[in-house]
Amino acid sequence: MSRILMMSTTFIPVFLYHSLAVFTNEKKSNKKFIIGGYIVSTILSVMSFSHYSIVADVERRMDFQFWPVPGPLFSIHFITFCLFTFKVFDILLITLKTANGVYREQIGYLLIALILSFGGGMTNYFLFFNIHILPYGNILVSIYPIMVAYIILRFNFMDINLAFRYATIYSFFALLLGIPICALIWWVQSWILSSTLLIGAILLSPYLFMRLKSKLTFMVDQLPLFKGRYERLKNLQKHKNAIAQSLTLGEWETGLVQAVNELFDPASAHVLHLNDGSNDPMSMKLAQDRNVLIRDLLKQMQGEEDVARAMEDAGAEICMPLFMKGRLVSILLIAQKKGGEMYNDLDLAALWGLVKSAEEALRGILTRDEIIKKERLAAIGEMASIVGHEIRNPLAVIGNSIYYLEQKFPELFKNDAAAKHFNNMNAQVRSANKIIEDILDYARSRELALERGSINDLISKTLSVIVIPKNIRQALNLSKDISATLFDPEEMTQVITNVIRNAIEAMPEGGTLSIETAPHQEGIEVRVKDTGSGISKENLDKIFEPLFTTKTKGTGLGMAIVKKIIDRHKGTISINSEPGKGTAVTIRV
Fold it and tell me: The pTM is what?
């Protein structure tokens, strides 16, 4: 019995080191060392059945009636045990220096648990060397499973169902290999042949396991306990295919949310699309770490309280980032599961696979949209050339004719009815010319004439030429801390003019027009806010599209021109609006 017990101890540090190398992503760099450890442990185990064993005999030592007496290979066993124990602590200490956040806490708890348990377990070796110290430290060995259980519960470190699934797979393999080997050993009744069979089985077991793994996994997944997981994997692929076939952003979003709801059964799930320059704690954390956020873990991390609070406000337990061309464009927000279960590693792996497929599908949708946009721009450019030559000239003739009549026959304009018609003609000519100007402005491309100037002065000059109705109150807050900035005065004037006119038109019954400026990083921020009718979410997504408008009059090019100019300045523009409460436009350059 002592030989069997000592034989099992030869594998303890090797198994532990192997598992920690996998956990810390150091398996590849330590592969040869791990294989060497398994070979040495296997040889020591096999030799335990011979005269050259780790334990030679048993005798009474202190309070123990039967204590193992070291055999010829005990020294090799002890050196191997100490070497791998040292390597275990070495890999944990190195990882601890570079780890961050929750991962660092996990490593720290594991290190404490191993120091106590190995420190306590090593007291068994005193009596092997005839040092009369009883192994009181064995009580500390029990701390290791207790602390590992604590890590599992606190950090969602492991899914018990998943661990049981893997244990079932390995148990099936052990039975499949072990039963015939044990039968053969019993049948031959020779330690030499038995050792040969055991060594052969151990050496062949990795090869056999890799050959049989997929079949064993399939067999285990068909068991009632695990069948739901197998079905979910099939559904995952089905949803990936469905998302990949999405043609519009709406279909894509619906498919992604539906997939999450069916696969993980959360209380809720939705996609949050971000505007340029989103700076809430959750978005900034995702953009920086480019990794999944788990609210329960963030709550336990020092300095991440704001992120955890933002997730809680959004009703999210899990946040998955979606990137396009290296930029965070959307966030998948997933609430807790309806049954209260935790999200395990397999769930997160499945979510990552789903999100990566969604990113590919989104890239395809946006590429198609970009092609459509280019075709539309080409059509606008062609229309602009036609408008400029074929329509502008007749409008000029009409305008000049009205002016000629006014100068030549002033008595006509003294007649109220005639004057009214002439004024209407003039107004319509100006309106038509404005439409032409918008089309030409959007279609033409010229080099920026950048000058260093004051955005506050430009806003003041723009306001002085815009007619603001008396029922609209102005609220200006132009920061004095803004330094001179590089921009094209003509184009930036057009931006401010278009945005302010939109705000005025949104408040036909009156309201408040707020304009603020502030420093932003190395540039400036301009914020124009109204208290008007607001914009619906559906229209907000289309507001920068050329020719899109909800007005009875207008070309639908105003905000498209604004977006084009801001993009040319390498700036950002974002719009936040709530129907019935108003709209805020934020420009950063």
Answer: 0.46
Beta-sheet pairing, 318-324 with 327-334? antiparallel
Listed residue (536, 545, 526) closest to 588, CA to CA: 526
Distance CA 159, CA 523 (A): 48
Measured distance CA(582)–CA(504) in Å, rounded: 11
| Dist CA 364 CA 246 (whole Å) | 9
Residues 6 or more apart in contact with residue 173 via CB below 8 angstroms: 205, 208, 209, 212, 216
Q: What percent of the chain has pLDDT over 90?
A: 5
SS3 454: coil
pLDDT tens, position by position, 204-242: 777 777 777 777 777 776 676 666 565 666 777 888 888
Q: Which residues sit opposite 321 in a β-bridge?
A: 331
Q: Tokens standing for 284? A: 């900034």
Cα-Cα end-to-end distance for the chain: 78
Tokens of residue 55, six digits = 């334990």
**Span 531-589, pLDDT tens digits:** 988 888 778 877 887 766 766 666 667 788 888 888 888 888 888 888 888 999 999 88
Encoded amino acid at 403, one letter: Y
Q: Is 499 exposed, middle or buried (0-12, 13-18, 19+ CB in 10 A)?
A: buried
Measured between alpha carbons, how far is 90 from 280 in angstroms, rounded to an integer?
40
How many CB atoms within 10 Å of residue 337?
16
User: Whole-angstrom Cα distance, residue 544 to residue 394?
Assistant: 31
Q: Where are the alpha helices (DSSP H) in 409-548?
A: 416-443, 455-465, 489-505, 537-540
pLDDT band at 80 (very low <50, low <70, confident <90, very high): confident
> Which residue is it, tokens 């971000």?
274
Q: How confident is the model at residue 529 (pLDDT cuts 50, 70, 90)?
A: very high
- CA 80 to CA 15: how far, in whole Å? 13
